[in-house]
Design a protein that fits this description.
The chain has 8 helices and 13 strands. With 305 residues, the chain is an alpha+beta fold. The protein folds into 2 domains: 152 residues, Threonyl-trna Synthetase, Chain A, domain 2 (Threonyl-tRNA Synthetase, Chain A, domain 2, 2-Layer Sandwich); 112 residues, Diaminopimelate Epimerase, Chain A, domain 1 (Roll), CATH 3.10.310.40. The strands form 3 sheets. A 6-stranded mixed β-sheet has the order 8-9-10-11-13-12, sandwiched between helices. Strand 12 and strand 13 form a beta hairpin. It is elongated and about 95 Å long.
Length: 305
């Protein structure tokens, strides 16, 4: 694999660390960019072709200078004696100084599969791969998963990617339509709330329960409503998908006297809610949907003090 990396990516590739056993490996090497899918495929294919050819591993003892003359790779600033052990795999394809244990033939490896490629530091990448039975089992699991997806999507395995892209485009279109519907629904809701303000202590106060709506989506509409009304505070709570939600919005001309976070704190505990925000807008969510009305009442009492 090291030799293949150098051939495909360039001679700048140098081993920076490794862990190798009979079924997996971790290999760190110098390279700036993430490997593309095609590069990983090329390296896997080349290594597996050499495994399939069942080539002999040659182990030689040479003087250090003769080993380097053969093209042997030596890295990390390791110190070597006068005599060194040279491992040659697939002829001159891979020649390295190494004292490790090796298969006698490449075919003994059976199969090679890269399962991850990532960055571990600036200019250093890491490849993790598996071999032998572990690799064969992994590929069987992948094949079984693809077959299940093929059945679910009712398309051949080689059409899964195309079908997935088509479904993704449909989902994005549906999401766009739902967002548009949500916006229009919110606009109608806000129009219906506009005449429900009460004047309490020189403050236009709107305290309302609204269920089955993600209250966070109302923020933009509420900004327009409260600024139009002036000196206003909006407190809305409701049950959304089994959770108690609470939002508080304060107009800019009141934030010196009313802090949305303080008001939130005065009633959020009632519904077991946690949240936060800014002086003009705060929100929280909790589990006590049975206490939503109590929380709204507490927010009203906040202004009746």
């Amino acid at each position: 694999m090291h030799a293949s990396l150098r051939e495909k990516l360039g001679a700048h590739v140098e081993q920076k660390g490794s862990l190798v056993d009979d079924e997996k490996l971790r290999f760190d090497f110098s390279h700036k960019n993430a490997l593309s899918f095609e590069e990983i495929h090329q390296i896997e294919s080349q290594v597996n072709l050499l495994i399939k050819d069942d080539l002999d591993t040659e182990i030689l003892e040479k003087s250090y200078d003769d080993a380097i003359g053969l093209g042997a790779l030596a890295f990390f600033g390791d110190k070597y004696g006068e005599r060194v052990r040279v491992i040659k795999i697939a002829g001159d394809f891979s020649v390295e100084l190494c004292g490790g244990t090796h298969v006698k033939k490449t075919g003994d490896i059976s199969k090679f599969k890269i399962i991850s490629e990532s960055s571990i530091s600036s200019g250093v990448r890491r490849i993790e791969a598996i071999t032998g039975k572990k690799a064969l089992d992994y590929l069987k699991e992948q094949e079984d998963s693809l077959r299940e997806i093929s059945i679910m999507l009712n398309v051949p395995i080689n059409q899964i990617a195309k079908e997935t892209k088509s479904l993704d485009a449909k989902l994005k279109s549906l999401h766009k339509k739902l967002k548009s519907f949500e916006q229009k629904n919110n606009e109608r809701l806000i129009l219906g709330l506009a005449d429900k303000f009460e004047l309490i202590n020189d403050t236009n106060l709107l305290i309302q329960r609204v269920d089955n709506i993600n209250l966070s989506s109302l923020r933009g509409s509420l900004d327009s409503l409260k600024e139009e009304k002036g000196k206003s505070v909006v407190v809305i709570a409701g049950n959304f998908e089994g959770k108690a939600m609470l939002i508080i919005s304060v107009s800019k001309d009141l934030i010196d006297s009313v802090d949305a976070r303080n008001l939130l704190e005065s009633c959020a505990d009632i519904i077991g809610a946690k949240g936060g925000g800014r002086s003009d807008y705060a929100q929280a969510g909790g589990d006590r949907i049975d206490k939503i009305d109590d929380a709204l009442e507490a927010s009203k009492n906040f202004f009746n003090k």
